[in-house]
């Protein structure tokens, strides 16, 4: 299978998550924000997440290499997938980050070109494409 290269977007894409935090932890977070250590709760949580990711950076690097994952943002366009179909190939896509499938990619084109999809992070595609690929998502 040909290697896929990450495609840069003009602006960063963030995914919203929800977490449950105990009252004592939340109080400590609010205290640190009030004392000016962090701009707000989200700033502290993002910093804590980045610190944990940094603490495990070597392990993440080894897994990315072992699994041959694209690290970052991978955007698949209709033109790219049409070229894959013209070569008679199918892709096994593995992404740690964001996989974005262009809105004009049809379910038929996705089915004809995407053998499997493994995303650790987020998949952005039309509901029709997601539905068509449901059995190929890991």
Write the layout of secondary structure elements.
Blueprint: H1 23-34, H2 41-55, H3 57-67, E1 70-76, H4 78-86, E2 91-101, H5 107-113, E3 114-124, H6 127-132
Parallel strand pairs: 1-2, 2-3
Helix pairs in contact: 4-5
Describe this structure in words.
- This protein is an alpha/beta fold and 138 residues long.
- It folds into two domains: 23-54, no CATH class; 58-136, no CATH class.
- The protein has six helices and three strands.
- It has helices at residues 23-34, 41-55, 57-67, 78-86, 107-113, 127-132; strands at 70-76, 91-101, 114-124.
- Strands 1-2-3 form a three-stranded parallel beta sheet, covered by helices on one side.
- Helix 4 (78-86) crosses helix 5.
- The longest helix is centred in the middle third of the chain and has 15 residues, at 41-55.
- It is elongated, with a radius of gyration of 19 Å.
- Residues 6-10 have low confidence and may be disordered.
- InterPro entries: Arc_rbn_hlx_hlx, RHH_8, Ribbon_hlx_hlx.
- This is CopG family transcriptional regulator.
